[in-house]
Amino acid sequence: MTAPGFPQGMAAPEDAQQLKPMRSGLVRMRGKSDKGRRWQQEIDLELARLLVREKAAVIVNRHTIRRLFTNREFKTFILERDRYTCHFCGGYGDTIDHLLPRAKGGHTTPLNCVCACNACNQSKADRDVDDFLSSVVKQPEAASSIEQKKE
Fold it and tell me: What pTM does this model have?
Protein backbone atom coordinates (compact mmCIF):
# COMPACT_ATOMS: atom_id res chain seq x y z
CA MET A 1 0.00 0.00 0.00
CA THR A 2 1.41 3.40 -0.98
CA ALA A 3 0.74 6.22 1.44
CA PRO A 4 -0.10 9.76 0.32
CA GLY A 5 3.06 11.85 0.26
CA PHE A 6 5.33 8.82 -0.14
CA PRO A 7 7.06 7.86 -3.39
CA GLN A 8 5.18 5.38 -5.58
CA GLY A 9 5.66 1.86 -4.29
CA MET A 10 6.85 2.95 -0.84
CA ALA A 11 4.95 1.67 2.19
CA ALA A 12 3.47 3.99 4.80
CA PRO A 13 4.94 4.14 8.34
CA GLU A 14 2.01 2.20 9.74
CA ASP A 15 3.03 -0.70 7.46
CA ALA A 16 6.30 -1.27 9.40
CA GLN A 17 5.04 -4.75 10.35
CA GLN A 18 5.55 -5.75 6.69
CA LEU A 19 9.29 -5.88 7.32
CA LYS A 20 10.74 -9.36 7.69
CA PRO A 21 14.33 -10.28 8.54
CA MET A 22 16.61 -11.88 5.98
CA ARG A 23 18.17 -15.28 6.71
CA SER A 24 20.80 -13.47 8.78
CA GLY A 25 18.01 -12.28 11.10
CA LEU A 26 18.64 -8.66 10.09
CA VAL A 27 17.10 -6.07 7.75
CA ARG A 28 19.06 -4.24 5.07
CA MET A 29 19.21 -0.44 5.36
CA ARG A 30 20.38 1.76 2.50
CA GLY A 31 21.13 5.45 2.37
CA LYS A 32 23.39 8.18 1.05
CA SER A 33 26.23 10.02 2.74
CA ASP A 34 26.45 13.82 2.83
CA LYS A 35 28.74 13.55 -0.22
CA GLY A 36 26.18 11.49 -2.15
CA ARG A 37 27.90 8.11 -1.82
CA ARG A 38 25.55 5.19 -1.39
CA TRP A 39 25.94 2.95 1.64
CA GLN A 40 24.29 -0.17 2.96
CA GLN A 41 24.30 -1.95 6.31
CA GLU A 42 22.29 -4.60 8.13
CA ILE A 43 20.34 -3.65 11.24
CA ASP A 44 18.05 -5.25 13.80
CA LEU A 45 14.41 -5.78 12.74
CA GLU A 46 12.96 -3.73 15.61
CA LEU A 47 15.26 -0.78 14.85
CA ALA A 48 14.20 -0.93 11.19
CA ARG A 49 10.53 -0.89 12.20
CA LEU A 50 11.17 2.02 14.58
CA LEU A 51 12.89 4.05 11.84
CA VAL A 52 9.92 3.46 9.52
CA ARG A 53 7.31 4.28 12.18
CA GLU A 54 9.12 7.49 13.12
CA LYS A 55 9.43 8.51 9.44
CA ALA A 56 13.22 8.38 9.29
CA ALA A 57 13.08 5.61 6.66
CA VAL A 58 10.73 4.03 4.13
CA ILE A 59 10.20 0.41 3.17
CA VAL A 60 11.71 -0.57 -0.19
CA ASN A 61 10.77 -4.26 0.07
CA ARG A 62 10.08 -6.67 2.93
CA HIS A 63 13.81 -7.01 3.71
CA THR A 64 15.04 -3.46 2.94
CA ILE A 65 14.48 0.09 4.16
CA ARG A 66 15.92 3.38 2.87
CA ARG A 67 16.92 6.27 5.12
CA LEU A 68 15.17 9.49 4.09
CA PHE A 69 17.91 11.89 5.19
CA THR A 70 21.66 12.26 4.96
CA ASN A 71 23.21 13.39 8.26
CA ARG A 72 23.37 17.01 7.06
CA GLU A 73 19.79 16.94 5.74
CA PHE A 74 18.58 15.47 9.04
CA LYS A 75 20.26 18.20 11.08
CA THR A 76 18.82 20.90 8.81
CA PHE A 77 15.36 19.31 9.03
CA ILE A 78 15.42 19.30 12.87
CA LEU A 79 16.78 22.86 13.14
CA GLU A 80 14.20 24.24 10.70
CA ARG A 81 11.35 22.24 12.24
CA ASP A 82 12.22 23.70 15.66
CA ARG A 83 12.91 27.15 14.17
CA TYR A 84 16.47 27.23 15.55
CA THR A 85 14.98 27.51 19.05
CA CYS A 86 16.51 25.53 21.91
CA HIS A 87 14.03 22.98 23.24
CA PHE A 88 15.33 23.48 26.79
CA CYS A 89 15.87 27.23 27.30
CA GLY A 90 14.14 28.88 24.33
CA GLY A 91 17.34 30.57 23.14
CA TYR A 92 19.00 30.29 19.74
CA GLY A 93 19.96 26.70 18.96
CA ASP A 94 22.18 25.31 16.24
CA THR A 95 22.85 21.76 17.46
CA ILE A 96 20.59 18.74 17.75
CA ASP A 97 20.16 16.71 20.92
CA HIS A 98 18.65 13.28 21.53
CA LEU A 99 15.83 13.40 24.10
CA LEU A 100 16.65 9.79 24.99
CA PRO A 101 20.44 9.76 24.65
CA ARG A 102 22.05 7.34 22.22
CA ALA A 103 24.10 6.05 25.15
CA LYS A 104 20.83 4.93 26.76
CA GLY A 105 19.32 3.34 23.65
CA GLY A 106 17.89 6.39 21.89
CA HIS A 107 17.98 6.58 18.10
CA THR A 108 18.46 9.39 15.62
CA THR A 109 14.85 9.86 14.56
CA PRO A 110 12.72 12.98 14.14
CA LEU A 111 10.71 12.14 17.28
CA ASN A 112 13.80 11.67 19.47
CA CYS A 113 15.80 14.70 18.30
CA VAL A 114 15.33 18.38 19.10
CA CYS A 115 17.14 21.65 18.48
CA ALA A 116 19.39 22.71 21.37
CA CYS A 117 21.80 25.53 22.07
CA ASN A 118 25.40 24.47 22.62
CA ALA A 119 25.29 25.24 26.37
CA CYS A 120 22.18 23.12 27.01
CA ASN A 121 23.43 20.32 24.75
CA GLN A 122 26.76 20.20 26.60
CA SER A 123 25.11 20.45 30.03
CA LYS A 124 22.59 17.72 29.28
CA ALA A 125 25.30 15.37 27.98
CA ASP A 126 24.01 11.79 28.14
CA ARG A 127 21.26 12.41 30.70
CA ASP A 128 17.61 11.99 29.83
CA VAL A 129 15.39 15.08 29.73
CA ASP A 130 13.87 14.66 33.21
CA ASP A 131 17.29 14.27 34.87
CA PHE A 132 18.62 17.32 33.03
CA LEU A 133 15.65 19.55 33.82
CA SER A 134 15.58 18.52 37.49
CA SER A 135 19.30 19.32 37.81
CA VAL A 136 18.71 22.78 36.32
CA VAL A 137 15.93 23.43 38.85
CA LYS A 138 18.15 22.28 41.76
CA GLN A 139 21.02 24.54 40.66
CA PRO A 140 19.80 28.16 40.59
CA GLU A 141 23.04 29.38 38.98
CA ALA A 142 22.44 27.01 36.05
CA ALA A 143 18.84 28.15 35.76
CA SER A 144 19.89 31.80 35.80
CA SER A 145 22.47 31.21 33.05
CA ILE A 146 19.74 29.63 30.94
CA GLU A 147 17.49 32.63 31.66
CA GLN A 148 20.25 35.05 30.59
CA LYS A 149 20.50 33.30 27.21
CA LYS A 150 16.81 34.00 26.57
CA GLU A 151 17.44 37.77 26.67
Answer: 0.76
Buried b vs exposed e over 93-111: b needs ≥16 C-beta within 10 Å? bebbbbbebeeeebebbee
**Enclosing H/E stretch for 79:** helix 71-81
- Cα 26 from chain centroid? 21
Q: What value does the mean pLDDT take over residues 130-141? A: 74
Short-list 90, 104, 51, 92, CA closest to 74: 51
State whether the Cα torsion 95-100-105-107 is positive or negative: negative
Is 145 in contact with 86 (CB distance < 8 Å)? no
Q: Which residue has the higher pLDDT, 105 or 10?
A: 105
The domains located in the chain, with CATH, are: 13-67 (no CATH), 71-150 (1.10.30)
